[in-house]
Amino acid sequence: MGQSIVVAGASGFIGKAVCRQLLERGRTVIGLVRRPGTLPAGVQEWLLNAEAFEGVDENWPAELRCDAVVHLAARVHMMNDTSPDALAAYRAVNVEGTMRLAQAAHRAGVRRFVFVSSVKAVAERSHGRPISERDQPAPPDPYGVSKLEAERALQAFGRETGMEIVIIRPPLVYGPGVRANFFNLMRAIDKGIPLPLGAIAAQRSIVYVDNLADAIVHCANAPAAAGHIFHVADERDVAVKELASMLAEQLNAPRRLLPVPPALLHLVGRLTGRTAVVDRLVGELRLDCSLIREAIGWRPPYTTEQGLRETAAWYRSNH
Fold it and tell me: What Rg value do the Cα atoms of the chain yield, rounded?
């Protein structure tokens, strides 16, 4: 079992959770970050202030020996990407940067490379059954395309070199420190704003950040994880209206969920140019996570209720 692990993107939302869990297990953790002073206590800092891991090979510390690299850094999905060539921008970081890091790690003798991808590498929606790792990928946008291309480039690199590649595809991640859409949903519920979510019954997979971090730590060490792509989510799926109700309960806020029919939401989305937003809100997206259970015996250590309770407690303390 490895003792030293490099975490690229260690200062991020997921990275901090991964670092904490590695430290709790007695690992030496080296956080590869662009800005100083952003790491949890106990994590060794490796600064590389460069775009897309340029120069990572030349700047790999001569004394650094580690068993695994966990790669979390990425150009993240943005709802309204204004880049003139969005796919090229995503590729530069998510594909080319990922391969620079993997190649440098291999030359430094690293045994295993754990890449945190995204469900968007395979699909935006499921259609009546959960999406499995065996399904044909159909990424819906430039971000998803870049993640799929990175997955395939890493798999080819692993076959060529013998480096152990493990790929993890999470859905929406939530927990203390969450931002973007999930944070905005909590804020709206906390303020008592009526939301048109009362009729949205489509089930969606989500994952609590500490569940995802636990899966990542297992994948960095379990021998049987090598070579696999894993879908990782909480034990059960939730409908958007159920999620909003559960958050309202944890936030001690009123449940103001208007039963607006999904067809009407779709119409509003088309009229306002926000079709993609409505599709994500209304559509089903369920993941089949049985493979990681079968391969390495992993199950989420926390329930969705526990995750939402911790997330709401963080929100109340900070906002």
Answer: 20
Computed from CA positions of residues 176, 177, 178, 184, in that sequence, does the dihedral angle turn out positive or negative?
positive
Asked if residue 22 belongs to a domain, the reply is yes
Q: Is residue 274 part of a domain?
A: no
Count of domains for the chain: 1
Q: Are 115 and 167 contacting, i.e. CB atoms less than 8 angstroms apart?
A: yes
Residue 34 lies in a domain: yes
Q: What is the pLDDT of residues 171-217, one digit of tens each?
A: 999 999 999 989 999 999 999 999 999 999 999 999 999 999 999 99
Cα three-residue angle 275-281-285, rounded to 5 degrees:
110
Answer whether 0.90 is exceeded by the pTM: yes
Quote the domain boundaries for residue 225: 4-176+207-237
In a domain, 212, yes or no: yes
Instruction: List the one residue out of 148, 112, 150, 154 whose CA is nearest residue 133.
Output: 148
CATH number for the domain including 9? 3.40.50.720
Q: Which of 90, 143, 302, 315 is catalytic?
A: 143
90 catalytically annotated = no
Render pLDDT for 268-317 as a digit per residue (tens, 0 to 9). Answer: 888 888 887 788 788 999 999 999 999 999 999 999 999 999 999 999 99
